[in-house]
Structure formats: structure tokens, C-alpha cells
Amino acid sequence: MATSEKQAMVVGIDDSEHSKYALEWTLDHFFAPFASNPPFKLFVVHAKPTASSAVGLAGPGAADVLPYVDADLRKIAARVVEKAKELCLGKSVNDAVVEVVEGDARNVLCEAVEKHHASMLVVGSHGYGAIKRAVLGSVSDYCAHHAHCSVMIVKRPTIKH
């Protein structure tokens, strides 16, 4: 199957263990078993929040903080990208495209699906409870309802003590 015929798969990542697990799971199930000819072209997308959305405050002094917050978000994004590339290379997936897009993860991932004409979007699940999910809004819930493709939510197995 030539690359041009391959369907695109977008995996959304952030700096959480849940997202790392989702990427590893995807590589193990959709890429590693196919060696050099996986069925999908892989796009790994990290949504970098804007400094103003991360700070969430306005007023005197807010503008002074933003450059520091942005520098921090850039460092996090660089680390997330580095880790994703390492995971892909570790599973011999050498042609994955890893990108950082600024914005809210919900919109960034749905837009990435459109841009790459993806037939599948993979996201991790943070496993928030109902209240936290209601307050924060779940990226996976949003994508499941708004992405124009199939959405797979990868959940980390819970460790029973």
C-alpha cells in the first residue's frame, strides 16, 4: 500500500501519563505489528495552550506574567514532542509527523482531523470524575461528538491494590 493511499490517524498528546499510554498503545496495536508497512500515516498532535488561557487572569500585572508562562508552555511542548518522537522511534515508526499547534486541545484536535483528512482520532482518557469533567470539560467527550471521524479513547488500566 503506497503512502498516498494510507489513511491518516491523529493521536492527541499532552504531558500526562494517560496521553503517553494512549500513544504507546496505538503504536503497539496499529504500527509495531506491521513493521515497515503500517496501515496508517501517523500524525501526533500536541495542543499548546495560549499563555493567556493558561493564566486565565486579566488586569494590572497580568501582561508581565505572560512571557514567563509562554516560555514555560514552550518548554513543556518541546518535552512532549521529544517524548513522542522517542516513543515512535522506539517502536520503529520513523515517519510519524509530530506537531505542536497553539490553541484549545478540543479545537486543535478536531482541526487536525480535518487538515490531515484523518479517518481515526486517538485520545487518552484522564479518568476525571463527573464533577471535574463538568468543570474542565473533557477533551475526549468533545472530540467524540465533534470530530469528523472515528474517535478512539484509550483508557489506562486501573491498578487494583
Automatic annotation (TrEMBL):
Q: Which GO terms describe its molecular function?
A: hydrolase activity
- Kindly give the Pfam families that the UniProt entry links to this protein: Usp
- Database matches in SUPFAM superfamilies: Adenine nucleotide alpha hydrolases-like (SSF52402)
UniProtKB keywords: Hydrolase
Residue ranges of domain UspA in the record = 9-155
Under the heading CDD domains, the entry gives: USP_At3g01520-like
Q: What is this protein called?
A: Adenine nucleotide alpha hydrolases-like superfamily protein
Supply the source organism for this entry. Theobroma cacao
